[in-house]
Amino acid sequence: MIETLKRHWWVPVIRGIAAIVFGIIAFTHPTLAATTLLLFFGAWVLIDGIFRVVGAIGHHASDPDWGWHLIIGIVGIIVGLLTFHAPGITALALVIYVAAWALMIGASEIVLAVKLRREIKGEWFLILMGLVSIAFAVLLLWNPVAGAAALIWLIAWYAVVFGILGIFFGFRLRSLRALPVS
Prior knowledge:
The protein has seven helices and no strands. With 182 residues, the chain is an all-alpha fold.
């Protein structure tokens, strides 16, 4: 496997460059990045929904869960079409989803800290983690537009860091010596 990786060392470099380019575009044009991400999301969910519906109908005789797959497919088609029709609503829903997730994580961290308070020292770290998650959720819900912009910035930072690491990894693969054949 290492030989294959070494032979294709340029793949992570290209992926890294693409990630950095995307990150820079997201930093300089956050609205364009958000719109592009939403449209790609809509296309993906729509296509996935269509294939799920086709698969559910095609396999209804052999798949006992075909009805569930059919429902998921129909919901995917609806969400995909809504994304193209009203991308702002999709963006708002995504921010609300992230906020709800952060609230659940925060609450569960605090509950876990209370349960473990007699068994571990430093349970206040869990409480602090929970409070930070809850504060993040409240900030997202307080101003969802700013929350969406912040998510784009986080994605942009991730893309740039991921890209830099990918480039380093690719060149590291390129510099590896050939392994002796046994």
